[in-house]
Structures are given as C-alpha cells and as structure tokens.
User: Fold this.
Amino acid sequence: MKAVRFENQTISVVDLPLPEIGGNEALVKILMAGICATDIAIFNGYAGFTGIPGHEFVGIVEQCPKSPELVGKRVVADINCGCGRCPACLARDPRHCPERQTIGIRGRDGVFAEYCAIPVENLHVVPEPVETLCAVFAEPLAAALEIAQQLHIGHHTRIAVIGDGKLGILAALGLNHYSSRVLLAGRYPQKLAIAERQGVATVCLDSKDAVAAVCARLGQFDITVDATGNPEGINLAIALTRPEGTVVVKTTSHRPSQIDLASVAVNELRLIGSRCGDLSLALRFLENRWLDVKPLVDAVYPLTDFTEAFSHALCKDSLKVLLAVE
Ligand SMILES: [Zn+2]
Ligand SMILES: [Zn+2]
Assistant:
C-alpha cells in the first residue's frame, strides 16, 4: 500500500505491506484523511514520532474478525488506544492510559496511508447522512467540544476563543450551541468570516492595542480558550480572563510557554488542559447539521501528492487540507 512516512523531519511517500491486524483490530481502508496542526507539530519534533502520521480520517472496514458486522461500514475512530488493564482504561478513559498508543502520534502508525489497523473498540460508525468530507472533522470537532464536557457552560457564560485556526473555529462554532455569548478572536478576516456567517461574534486582533480594546468594549471573559497553537497565546488568554475565571489550554506547541503565573495567582484563575473528546458527540453535531464544517476545507489532494498537501497546510492562512486516499 501507499503510505506517508515521517522520519527526522523528512517526508516520504513509500510502498509498504498491508498492516497485519491483531485479534481486537479491524483493517480499515482509508477514504479521506485530514492534516491537522498536530501533524505539523509532530513533523517539527513534537512527540518524537517516526512512522506513518495522521489521525483524522474516514474509512471503510475491510476486515474485522472480532465484529464481522462492521465490515463495509464507514467509520471514524478515537485516536487513543489504551492497554485495557490500568485504572484509566478500566474507567473507560484510555486517553489517560500511561501506556497508551495514539494513532499517528505515539507508538502506532496513522492514517496517511491506504490502510490502517485500528482497535475495534475505537471505531464509530458514521451515520448515513454525514458526508465523508464532513465526517473527517469528527476527531477535531470532538476535541473542540471536549471543552463543553469539562466545564459547566451556561447560556450567558462569556466565552472568548483565541485563535482562528481550524480548532479555534470549530470550538467557537461548537460552544455557540452552549452559550449565547461566544467571541472568536483571530488575525485573519477571511477565517473569522466562516464563524461569523454561522452566528459567532468575532474580533480581529490586528494591532497591539486590540486586546485592551476588546476588554474595554466587552469586559473580560468567564472562560477563555487558547487555541492559538502558539506558546505565547496563553498570556493573551490570561489577560482576557476575569478574576476567578477559567483558561482552557488547547495549544500543544513543541516549544514551551513562558506563563505569566503571577496573574494566574493574583486573579485566582483556573488553568484547564483539554485534549481529545467524544467522537459520538461530534458525529451527532454533524448529523444534525448544528454546524457547517465544509467552509473549513481549503483543498483536497491525492495521498500521493502528500508533500504538496503538507506545504499547503503549512501556509499560515490555510485551513483544513484533506487527502483523498482512494
Ligand atoms: Zn488532529
Ligand atoms: Zn491503560
């Protein structure tokens, strides 16, 4: 099969044998995959990964000895594969299994390939009405919606999402269903417009004074989400949060952050890390068309043109770049 390989900050498209599946795994033929900021961070050295990258996908189950009824079904998958024995796994949360593998990120080959072996328990069948192009957003949308699973959000909770990348836009669109007072702050008018067209208030942080101007106009926020993907983003989030408010950390940069901890202490802020979420919730959002992810798609490349696709994804003003694998 054709597959992409990351090794020492080089990319190659190689021919590999089909993955062998274990007793608890399914062989999934990949239809479409998405390049995400984490893939770029991995390429730059985050997580020290070597192998086939990629964790956002839609595929068709081709072999599944454990659950033959899944063969032929269109699926997406949770990306964390736990050991099945530790307290986190026994509590059905392999996201925090200390021995976990993560598809295309840690210890396990990913989906930028024609086929991938995936644990059966990680699979979610995609509802019929959800197009493949939209279902490929299930994993990042689940990560965005995780914020609403971690925090109590009331209809009047004031939320600022900082960063108008893919995750920031998805978070703003998702949280807009929980609160009527969501603001997306970013730097690219054309990206902000995607959220604005779906009813989210936006502000362009185009100058140094923009943050002070936002606070003067709107006050500080109960919850601020750092989805900038930038190690400096956290301090902007802290500055926008009211005393005793909550800062949600979504950024996973390979560079460490210098945090203004004095403001956190003085203002008694809560910092909450937030990672992967519930794909079944994301699929429900997509099935009910509670948000439209299509405007986030920038381009679709064949898998064999991965290098071009990846350069496109590296452009600062790009949004979701997809790979059509068939
Ligand atoms: Zn991702
Ligand atoms: Zn475990």
Summary: Residues 36, 38, 55-56, 139-140 surround zinc ion (ligand 1) (CB under 6 Å).
